[in-house]
Design goal:
It is a single chain. It is built from two helices and six strands; from the N terminus they run ββαβαβββ. It is an alpha+beta fold. The chain has a six-stranded mixed β-sheet with strand order 1-3-2-4-5-6, covered by helices on one side. The C terminus is likely disordered.
Length: about 90
């Protein structure tokens, strides 16, 4: 698990491996915006994306997936958001 936590608790959880160009784009964006985030390796050799827990976050089983507080945002082509924002 890779972590880049800034300003205390990380309200942003990024799921995906850094060898994925799309995950790198999301991490780069979060860093440029100064957002606190935590990244967890998923996909490719790390697996995880076919687990029921991950598929509950992203039914497409692709990376990246972004969790914001209690809401999930699918960073895939659908750009779909689900969950309850608090």
């Amino acid at each position: 698990m890779a972590t880049d936590v800034r300003r205390g608790q990380a309200p942003l959880q990024i799921w995906g491996r850094l060898t994925s160009i799309n995950v790198r784009k999301v991490v780069w964006c979060a860093q440029e915006l100064g957002l606190a985030f935590q990244r967890t390796d998923a996909g490719g050799p790390f697996g995880v994306v076919q687990t029921p827990e991950y598929r509950a976050l992203n039914p497409n089983a692709l990376v990246p997936t972004i969790e914001v507080d209690d809401a999930d945002v699918d960073a895939g082509t659908g750009g779909r958001a689900s969950g309850n924002r608090t």
